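Per your request, structure below.
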């Protein structure tokens, strides 16, 4: 119910985004706590944020980064069409933050302060833009999921709701385009700064 209140148009947009970012930061903190050099080789854990596991060629880096971002956005898109998709959105943000935190901390565990150049050039930019896409995707997930819940409980459907779903699809198409742009930038960065790893 609390999440539903935050998605109410009468509430301040900034407050809603603040809480979504707070969840993401909580995930980063959890990932940092568990980060070490030995437990992040799985793509499901590192989410390709660690340049060590991002890929050996620009094509591999692009493919890995894009698939990680795309499946996150796709999961958010599908969850938004469910009346019980709200908890999934929160878990997705925790998961995204966990991948960022554990990947960053593992680099520091392996290299110490010499990991700073790799973190600043290869991890931080991707983490910032990926986090932005993730927060936007989950925000839209929560908004539509609340509308679906309202329809399930009240049985009301309006033309404006149908337009909202079309707009929902357009927004996620834009987010997919952003995923492509982030993946291209990540591939280029990994090619240019591969010596930092």
């Amino acid at each position: 119910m609390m999440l539903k209140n935050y998605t109410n148009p009468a509430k301040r947009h900034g407050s809603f985004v603040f809480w979504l970012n707070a969840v993401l930061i909580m995930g980063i903190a959890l990932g940092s706590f568990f980060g070490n050099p030995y437990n992040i080789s799985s793509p499901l854990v590192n989410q390709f944020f660690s340049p060590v596991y991002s890929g050996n060629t620009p094509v591999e880096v692009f493919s890995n980064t894009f698939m990680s971002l795309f499946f996150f956005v796709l999961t958010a898109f599908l969850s938004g069409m469910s009346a019980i998709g709200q908890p999934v959105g929160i878990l997705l943000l925790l998961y995204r933050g966990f991948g960022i935190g554990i990947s960053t901390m593992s680099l520091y565990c392996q290299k110490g302060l010499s990991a700073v150049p790799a973190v600043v050039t290869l991890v931080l930019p991707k983490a910032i833009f990926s986090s932005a896409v993730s927060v936007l995707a989950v925000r839209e997930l929560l908004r539509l999921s609340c509308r679906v819940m309202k329809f399930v409980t009240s049985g009301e459907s309006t033309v404006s709701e149908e337009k909202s779903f079309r707009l929902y699809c357009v927004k996620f198409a834009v987010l997919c385009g952003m995923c492509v742009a982030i993946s291209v930038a990540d591939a280029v960065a990994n090619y240019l700064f591969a010596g930092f790893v």
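The radius of gyration is 18 Å.

Regards,
D.
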